[in-house]
Specification:
Layout lengths: L9 E2 L2 E2 L10 E2 L4 H29 L1 H8 L3 E6 L2 E6 L2 H23 L4 E6 L20 H9 L21 H12 L8 E5 L5 H15 L5 E5 H13 L3 H9 L3 E5 L8 H16 L3 E6 L11 H7 L3 E5 L4 H14 L6 H10 L4 H18 L5 H7 L1 H5 L10 H12 L3 H4 L6 H18 L3 H7 L5 H17 L1 H14 L5
Parallel strand pairs: 3-6, 5-6, 7-10, 7-11, 8-9, 9-10
Antiparallel strand pairs: 1-2, 4-5
Helix pairs in contact: 1-2, 1-3, 5-6, 7-8, 11-12, 11-13, 12-21, 16-18, 16-21, 18-20, 19-20
The protein binds adenosine-5'-diphosphate and magnesium ion (MG).
Amino acid sequence: MGEKYVENLVVQGEKLRSLGHVGELFTGVNNSLLAAQREGGGGGVQQVWEQVLAQVEEKVGRVTTETWLKPVKPLALREETLHLEVPNALFRDWLLENLLPHIRKSLETILGFAAQIVIHVAAKQQGELFPSQRYEEREPTKAESARATNTKKNGLVSNYTFSSFIVGAGNQFANAAARAVAEHPGKHYNPLFIYGGVGLGKTHLINAIGHETIVKQGGKSVFYLSSETFTNELIAHLRRDRMDDFKTKFRQADVLIIDDIQFLSGRERTQEEFFHTFNTLHQAHKQIILTSDKFPNEIEGLEERLRNRFEWGLIADIQPPDLETRVAILQKKAQQKKIQLPHDVSLFIATHVTANVRELEGGLTKLGAYSTMTDTPITIDLAQQVLQNLMRGGKDRDQEVSVETVQKAVCKYFAIRVVDLTSKKRTQMVAFPRQVAMFLCRKLAGASYPMIGVRFGGKDHTTALYACASIEKRLKLDEELRAVLARIENIVFGQEN
Ligand code: ADP
Ligand code: MG
């Protein structure tokens, strides 16, 4: 772009604002520059935007997406900048405050780089308070229709069931609690509060409770919604002066499931309303199920009385899955998606993609798509090629690694002390970790054999050479050892603790 929008330009009475985001200028203008971009923008931007919508919807729910993102028009994707058009200024501000981080994040996942976002206010719609109906008339996109059929009236996602949920050490407790609640809603653990990092299966698990309750306790009314949706519904009812309907609607639930409760943070009015809903349902022994990415105590901007109530029932956490669980999840997902995934490849992916299940699944989808498009079978080589970005994780693997870093990581993994690693002890407990450490010092820190000898307590360089050769030989045959090394590398690069 030859020319950037000028920050203080006043167009149609509205001052452009930069709102402190570098590179994000918000204009009220529909100028010729933009018109040119629009022509050149092509279908690519539409596709990218649809992917963004699908990803953001996963985070914020369908209602928010329909209300706030459907009316957004993707104009162009040019020079690493995505141009969006919104109907009015209120819309723009709402997007900025609530959805921009999600949009930016998914855009980065899709494009592989951090694109700038420029939001333009459509000239004609300025002054209108709420989104115009005409935007809702457009045909739903393929992705939207697919998701719509996947989501039932009660808000539950149809394929998030117990049978498709893999249980491992990290989620065993949460899973058991979820099953108990589905068996006897409102009886034992009320509320059930599940917390854990993103992409670890919270949404899946609480949907599973919803489905199971419907199957087992026919006739129960189950409501599943995100806290964003709850807020939006509240706003909509307030706007139409229909608060009684709002109260009746949520208070008739037998099972009320609210996802990502951390989004209620700082929203006083919503918290207040939720508080009353909570009390009514709880007193009537109706089941309440909540999730959050944090423990109740750690959610900032949450009223004490709500926090207190969240702690009344059972709080269960979900931890990242271990290697075996990651492999099992991959195989399950491959089966569901009808992707031919050989065992060695699933082990390879599970070893390298460790952050969360969503990434794991994203990697599998990408690999499956690539294999179909290029008509090549899925092999470790192909996985390595296709998943390069994912496997590198957020950190730069080219960073310099020191011998100490490697030693510490190895000790952490094997739960031994560095002094023992660099001692003359020859017990099995330290001998094997020492060989691994020597091998990784050479591989990751580029240390020479004599140097390794010195840094491991003044040993001869042949000891280092022997250790490296021995590990290298075992690696060719030993899958488990490959996995161990990958885990240690993750520790070295700070992607795993
Ligand atoms: P969260 O709500 O914790 O961010 P999600 O429930 O959205 O995570 O999970 C992200 C993806 O990973 C979903 O597609 C979900 O089906 C899948 N997933 C997570 N944990 C498991 C598991 N234990 N078994 C099968 N799939 C899982
Ligand atoms: Mg979730």
